[in-house]
Amino acid sequence: MTEVLKRGFPGMKSVKDMPIVQDAPPPGGFPTIRIERRLPSTGPTGVAIFAGLAAIMGYGFYKLHEQRQEKRFEADEILTVRKIVHPVLQAEWDLRYLEHLKREREEEAKVMKNVPGWKVGESTTRHRWLAPLESWDKRPLV
Protein backbone atom coordinates (compact mmCIF):
# COMPACT_ATOMS: atom_id res chain seq x y z
CA MET A 1 0.00 0.00 0.00
CA THR A 2 2.83 2.39 0.66
CA GLU A 3 4.23 1.75 -2.80
CA VAL A 4 0.99 2.84 -4.37
CA LEU A 5 0.84 5.97 -2.35
CA LYS A 6 4.46 6.84 -2.90
CA ARG A 7 5.02 5.98 -6.50
CA GLY A 8 1.54 6.02 -7.97
CA PHE A 9 1.79 2.61 -9.65
CA PRO A 10 -1.27 0.57 -8.71
CA GLY A 11 -0.81 -3.15 -8.46
CA MET A 12 2.97 -3.14 -8.01
CA LYS A 13 3.92 -6.18 -6.06
CA SER A 14 7.65 -5.64 -5.58
CA VAL A 15 10.45 -3.23 -6.15
CA LYS A 16 11.55 -5.27 -9.07
CA ASP A 17 8.41 -4.23 -10.94
CA MET A 18 9.53 -0.54 -10.86
CA PRO A 19 10.88 0.91 -14.06
CA ILE A 20 14.62 1.49 -14.05
CA VAL A 21 15.51 5.18 -14.15
CA GLN A 22 19.21 5.98 -13.93
CA ASP A 23 20.53 9.44 -13.22
CA ALA A 24 23.16 10.46 -15.74
CA PRO A 25 25.08 13.62 -16.34
CA PRO A 26 23.72 16.01 -18.90
CA PRO A 27 25.32 15.95 -22.32
CA GLY A 28 28.78 17.55 -22.06
CA GLY A 29 29.03 16.74 -18.34
CA PHE A 30 28.39 18.69 -15.18
CA PRO A 31 30.06 22.10 -14.78
CA THR A 32 33.25 22.02 -12.69
CA ILE A 33 32.92 22.80 -9.04
CA ARG A 34 35.37 25.45 -7.83
CA ILE A 35 36.95 24.07 -4.67
CA GLU A 36 40.16 26.16 -4.45
CA ARG A 37 40.25 29.05 -2.00
CA ARG A 38 40.18 32.43 -3.67
CA LEU A 39 40.44 35.28 -1.17
CA PRO A 40 40.56 38.84 -2.42
CA SER A 41 43.77 40.78 -1.91
CA THR A 42 43.17 42.87 1.20
CA GLY A 43 46.39 44.87 1.37
CA PRO A 44 50.16 44.82 1.02
CA THR A 45 52.09 41.62 1.45
CA GLY A 46 54.12 40.80 4.53
CA VAL A 47 57.37 41.52 2.71
CA ALA A 48 56.11 44.97 1.69
CA ILE A 49 55.06 45.77 5.26
CA PHE A 50 58.43 44.59 6.61
CA ALA A 51 60.32 46.64 4.01
CA GLY A 52 58.23 49.74 4.82
CA LEU A 53 58.81 49.41 8.55
CA ALA A 54 62.53 48.80 8.02
CA ALA A 55 62.71 51.97 5.90
CA ILE A 56 60.86 54.01 8.53
CA MET A 57 63.12 52.70 11.31
CA GLY A 58 66.22 53.37 9.22
CA TYR A 59 65.11 56.96 8.66
CA GLY A 60 64.40 57.34 12.39
CA PHE A 61 67.85 56.08 13.35
CA TYR A 62 69.40 58.42 10.77
CA LYS A 63 67.58 61.43 12.27
CA LEU A 64 68.55 60.31 15.79
CA HIS A 65 72.20 60.14 14.73
CA GLU A 66 71.98 63.63 13.19
CA GLN A 67 70.40 65.02 16.36
CA ARG A 68 73.06 63.46 18.57
CA GLN A 69 75.82 64.91 16.39
CA GLU A 70 74.19 68.35 16.61
CA LYS A 71 73.87 68.12 20.40
CA ARG A 72 77.49 66.99 20.68
CA PHE A 73 78.60 69.93 18.54
CA GLU A 74 76.57 72.36 20.68
CA ALA A 75 78.01 70.87 23.89
CA ASP A 76 81.55 71.20 22.50
CA GLU A 77 80.82 74.80 21.54
CA ILE A 78 79.49 75.62 25.03
CA LEU A 79 82.51 73.94 26.63
CA THR A 80 84.89 75.89 24.42
CA VAL A 81 83.18 79.18 25.29
CA ARG A 82 83.31 78.30 29.00
CA LYS A 83 87.02 77.52 28.72
CA ILE A 84 87.61 80.87 27.04
CA VAL A 85 85.53 82.86 29.54
CA HIS A 86 86.73 80.98 32.63
CA PRO A 87 89.85 83.14 33.29
CA VAL A 88 87.77 86.32 33.08
CA LEU A 89 85.18 84.96 35.49
CA GLN A 90 87.89 83.69 37.80
CA ALA A 91 89.47 87.14 37.86
CA GLU A 92 86.06 88.67 38.74
CA TRP A 93 85.59 86.18 41.58
CA ASP A 94 89.11 86.91 42.83
CA LEU A 95 88.36 90.66 42.84
CA ARG A 96 85.11 90.08 44.71
CA TYR A 97 86.96 87.92 47.22
CA LEU A 98 89.63 90.56 47.78
CA GLU A 99 86.97 93.27 48.23
CA HIS A 100 85.15 91.04 50.72
CA LEU A 101 88.41 90.35 52.56
CA LYS A 102 89.21 94.07 52.67
CA ARG A 103 85.75 94.87 54.12
CA GLU A 104 86.14 92.10 56.70
CA ARG A 105 89.53 93.44 57.83
CA GLU A 106 88.17 96.99 58.08
CA GLU A 107 85.30 95.66 60.18
CA GLU A 108 87.75 93.64 62.31
CA ALA A 109 89.95 96.70 62.84
CA LYS A 110 86.91 98.76 63.87
CA VAL A 111 85.63 96.09 66.30
CA MET A 112 89.03 95.17 67.82
CA LYS A 113 90.58 98.67 67.99
CA ASN A 114 90.47 98.72 71.82
CA VAL A 115 92.15 95.30 72.26
CA PRO A 116 95.86 95.66 73.05
CA GLY A 117 98.24 93.58 70.91
CA TRP A 118 95.63 92.70 68.31
CA LYS A 119 96.95 92.49 64.77
CA VAL A 120 94.33 92.81 62.02
CA GLY A 121 94.26 89.89 59.58
CA GLU A 122 96.47 87.65 61.65
CA SER A 123 95.17 84.16 62.41
CA THR A 124 94.18 83.47 66.01
CA THR A 125 94.65 79.72 65.64
CA ARG A 126 97.59 77.58 64.67
CA HIS A 127 95.49 75.56 62.21
CA ARG A 128 95.97 75.97 58.54
CA TRP A 129 93.13 77.64 56.62
CA LEU A 130 90.98 75.28 54.51
CA ALA A 131 89.08 76.36 51.42
CA PRO A 132 85.29 76.32 51.71
CA LEU A 133 83.38 73.41 50.23
CA GLU A 134 82.33 75.53 47.25
CA SER A 135 85.73 76.50 46.00
CA TRP A 136 86.00 79.33 43.51
CA ASP A 137 87.13 77.24 40.58
CA LYS A 138 84.20 74.81 40.83
CA ARG A 139 81.44 77.40 40.66
CA PRO A 140 79.14 77.00 37.65
CA LEU A 141 80.13 79.22 34.78
CA VAL A 142 77.60 81.50 33.10
Q: Any overview of this molecule?
A:
By secondary structure, the protein is mainly α. It contains two helices and no strands. The longest helix is centred in the middle third of the chain and has 66 residues, at 46-111. The protein is rod-shaped and about 160 Å long. Belongs to the complex I NDUFA13 subunit family. It comes from Chlamydomonas reinhardtii (Chlamydomonas smithii). Keywords: Electron transport, Membrane, Mitochondrion, Mitochondrion inner membrane, Oxidoreductase, Respiratory chain, Transmembrane, Transmembrane helix, Transport, Ubiquinone. It is a single-pass membrane protein. The chain crosses the membrane at residues 45-62.
Summarize the structure.
The protein is mostly helical. The chain has helices spanning 2-7, 46-111. 0% of the residues are buried.
What are the salient characteristics of this protein?
GRIM-19, mainly alpha, oxidoreductase activity
Give the percentage of residues in beta strands.
Answer: under 5%
Secondary-structure-derived class: mainly alpha
Count of alpha and pi helical runs: 2
Largest β sheet strand count, sense and barrel closure: none
How widely separated are the two ends? 117 Å
Overall pLDDT metric? 83
Radius of gyration (Å)? 53 Å
Poorly predicted runs of 5 or more residues: none
Q: H/E series, N to C?
A: HH
Helix fraction by DSSP (H/I, runs of at least 4): 40-55%
Would you count the extended β strands for me? 0
Give the CA-based shape: rod-shaped
Subcellular location: Mitochondrion inner membrane
InterPro entries: GRIM-19
Main location: mitochondrion
Family: Belongs to the complex I NDUFA13 subunit family.
